[in-house]
Amino acid sequence: MDDMMGESGEGPAYNLFVQKSAFERRWQQLLDRSTPYVYQRWTGTGILLTLFMIRIVLAEGWYIICYALGIYLLNMFLAFLTPKITPSMEMDNQETEMEEGPSLPSKADEEFKPFIRRLPEFKFWHAVTQATVIALVCSFFRIFDVPVFWPILLVYFIILFGITMRRQIKHMIKYKYIPFDLNKKSYTGGGGGIGGGHGSKGR
Whole-model pTM? Predict the structure, then answer.
């Protein structure tokens, strides 16, 4: 009985599982170490996207893969721009609390509420990079080269991008939030106000 368990525990499937677990641990360690290197990470991803676009232009095919990648990146970008808790949800919660009765004051929280993204920067970068690598690999297999009239896909994507971003900008204006740090200065002098030195990074 023990011999059977030992043979089954040390078989090819078990060795493959061990190697897979070790690889996942090393990969996660590399991802954790790359977290602070924002510009370097996005530069590498930009190079991958450029290589993919060059591949599509030179090969004159795989337009459906390019379109699918564009739609996916647009969805990820919208999640990156959108706050995790929208102001409309906060207003609904406040109305519910007022209906249920008085609660403890939370003045400090109301004075400063950092912008927390629905999709953090690191996860956004990881999703974009992973999708770009998959699209680049798919562009080397003829089975994914579905014949389509690419100008229609391009026009449709431009229209979809315009409508989506217009809706997002209206949402930003309505609830008065900015998903980026636009030359915000940190106040290091006396006073130590609540607004000094706080950014809106949502990673």
Answer: 0.70
Six token digits for residue 27? 């990969």
- For 198, other C-beta atoms within 10 Å of its C-beta total 15
For the chain, the domains span: 9-86+119-175
41-83 residue pLDDT tens: 999 999 999 999 999 999 999 999 999 999 999 999 999 988 8
What is the 3 state secondary structure string of the chain?
Answer: CHHHHHHHHCCHHHHHHHHHHHHHHHHHHHHHHHCCCHHHHHHHHHHHHHHHHHHHHHHCCCHHHHHHHHHHHHHHHHHHHCECCCHHHHHHHHHHHHHHCCCCCCHHHHHCCCCCECCCHHHHHHHHHHHHHHHHHHCCCHHHCCCCCHHHHHHHHHHHHHHHHHHHHHHHHHHCCCCCCCCCCCCCCCCCCCCCCCCCCCC
* 2 token code pair: 């023990």
